[in-house]
Design a protein that fits this description.
The chain has 318 residues and is of the alpha+beta class. The protein folds into two domains: 141 residues, Triger factor/SurA peptide-binding fold; 109 residues, Roll (Chitinase A, domain 3). Strand 6 and strand 7 form a beta hairpin. Helix 3 packs across helix 6. 30% of the residues are buried.
Length: 318
């Protein structure tokens, strides 16, 4: 009998920080188009507010140099969200106002605030509530696409579970590493320069423990693990990404690596914790089911989004 695969909500995490108010844009600048995604446009004011939201989320000061550094990440996020909403519409998947408000309530609770207090704080920071609601709506839409369109394509058999458990039992006594990763891709030399600076700021934030890696990854990282707060989970030494294994083995618990460049991507690796595997720490069958299923589902949804993006008409104007 197949067990049920649990699909977690793709949570949005926001860390509020003090910021410096941004200068007002002219009406013409507000409505200038920075990108066209199929038949929908992204405006300059959308990009400005999303850039500010990224800075707030990562605990960085809202200054023009910092906004310039995150501009490309903000635009990529807006483009992908448009594509996710368009795909949900194509699949006749509805995102209700109640869905969005529930997401907002969850986000407020994550920040230990009521919805009213959270609304007031967003207003105080100078970010329109609509900016945050738009991001929540896209995440809810994509979660529904994953659950309704992609989840039925993922099968995990009893043989899969038993084989994984057997391999785990063979590793009793070996060391496991709890790894997180932030991936920051670049296409131009200017983006590479900006991301080099951003990488150092992220390292400082994580090392200072002011902002958890999961918070930063959920906003900045473009890798497959971004939806899970950048966490790759518990890995054995043999399972560590081969290009990063030596750096990981030299890290102490809670330490983050210097940027590693591979295939036009900056990678930052965090060793959150390491442990020696015991019989007591082995996962249950249900846990293994979810580990296998969510891994396959994550790969599937990344390819699905990549295919949607490749087939889309995207006209960037900045």
């Amino acid at each position: 009998m197949m067990k049920k695969l649990y699909i977690p909500f793709l949570a949005l995490t926001l860390l509020m920080a003090s910021i410096v108010a941004s200068p007002k844009m002219s009406a013409a600048e507000n409505f200038s188009i920075v990108s066209v995604v199929n038949d929908e446009a992204i405006s300059a004011i959308d990009l400005l507010y999303r850039s500010e939201l990224l800075l707030i989320s990562s605990g960085q000061q809202n200054t023009k140099p910092n906004r310039d550094k995150v501009k490309n990440q903000a635009l990529n996020s807006l483009i992908e969200e448009q594509l996710k909403l368009q795909e949900a519409k194509r699949q006749n998947i509805e995102v209700t106002e109640e869905d969005v408000q529930n997401g907002f309530q969850t986000l407020a609770e994550q920040n230990n605030l009521t919805s009213e207090e959270f609304t007031a704080m967003i207003k105080q920071q100078g970010i329109p509530k609509a900016t945050l609601l738009a991001q929540i709506k896209a995440q809810v839409a994509w979660s529904k696409v994953i659950a309704q369109v992609l989840r039925p394509q993922v099968d995990v058999s009893e043989n899969d579970i038993n084989a994984r458990l057997e391999r785990l039992r063979e590793n009793v006594g070996k060391t496991q590493y709890l790894i997180g990763k932030i991936s920051l891709p670049f296409e131009t030399e200017e983006e590479k320069r900006q991301l080099a600076q951003l990488s150092q700021q992220i390292i400082q934030e994580v090392q200072s423990k002011r902002t958890p890696l999961q918070v930063i990854a959920s906003q900045f990282s473009r890798g497959p693990a971004a939806a899970k707060g950048g966490m790759l989970g518990w890995l054995y030494e043999a399972e560590l990404p081969s290009d990063f294994a030596s750096q990981i083995l030299n890290l102490q618990d809670g330490q983050i690596s210097q940027p590693i460049i591979q295939d036009d991507v900056y990678h930052l690796i965090l060793l959150q914790q390491k442990r020696v595997v015991s019989e007591e720490s082995l996962p249950s069958e249900d846990d293994v089911l979810n580990q296998i299923g969510l891994g396959r589902l994550d790969s599937l949804q990344q390819k699905y989004l990549s295919d949607i993006k490749s087939a889309a008409f995207i006209d960037n104007r900045i």
